[in-house]
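Supplementary Note 3. Input sequence used for the single-chain structure prediction.
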Amino acid sequence: MIRDGVLVLADGSVFEGDLLGAEPAASAESAAVFSGEVVFNTVLSGYQEVITDPSYAGQIITFTTPHIGNYGVNATDFESRRPFCRGVIVRDIARRHSNYRAEASLDALLARYGIGGIGGIDTRRLTRLLRDTGAMPGAFGADETAVRAAAAAERGTDGIDLVAEVTTETSYSVGDADAGRHVVAYDFGMKQSILRDLSGLGRVTVVPASTTAAEVLALNPDGVFLSNGPGDPAEVGYAVDAIRDLLSRVPVFGICLGHQLLSRAIGGDTFKLPFGHHGGNHPVRHEATGKIEITSQNHNFCVDPESLVGTATVTHLNLNDMTVEGMRVNDAAAFSVQYHPEAGPGPHDSKYLFAMFDELMGGTGRRSAAPSARQLIEPELGVA
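The predicted structure, written as discrete structure tokens, is reproduced below.
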């Protein structure tokens, strides 16, 4: 049954459409709405990986690709135990999905995990608006009056610690217990495809975001990994303190939010981009070689290059806006990138970074077979 809905942005812009996914529960005091910071993503495929990426906590995802949902969803392609985004906006959602790997429809996945969606939206107009004015708070639902009020009240992602919402509550291990390499990975909202690549290097112990440096060192790691995650890096000071204490004591590799937190740990500053980088087609130049990598990206915040002068060397630049995409610390065995070399979804141009981490840890540990995402997280999904 088609449910009429409306999307309203904080600047008052209104888009009419059809509601999808979960039906939000209305309280006695207010009508049912979904609200969050509205951003756009330019991937042509991989919508399930995008929706289940914990880095989208607090955000409503607009897909610029007009036709979404045609190949369904499955347990293998989940990037986390559940979606953490606030909602999904599409131009057209497939009425029928058709793929031999499909186990459910996209609409059913959204409904199962309480995620709302709205279709029939002019996503071209919406994307151009967000491009020109920047990501902004918004809301959607059936009652326009309630939706307007929710859009006006939505805080967005600035100044909020969203990592606490997505990190694991307890430590756990993945990979071969007898492997020669032991990596401790901070879970700030880690994608499962990253965990697969790390477990290919050896045993991985995943720890909560609030784990102290002393607790990590007590695990006797060969290296420490700093994961991706959502929100404002300036609000995750406890992680910055731990990273600062780990530097020069163990090799460190960071991705996305991990890159920002590592930068802040050495005295760098971060700032919010106008509309962020979200997509699977961003060109990045590797400064040492001049080679161009096509990368998968998902971040709203960025590192200020001037704040790194004297403490780190910029290794990668985004060719769309010349922002920092990678750096290495000058006086410690530590490096990081802003983009996603695990390519889930996305190209594989940057897979070499995991080999670099292995070399930084000594390069002597044997590589173990990485478990599949289904083995790692299927018990928590229940998608079929």
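The longest helix spans residues 123-133. The radius of gyration is 20 Å.
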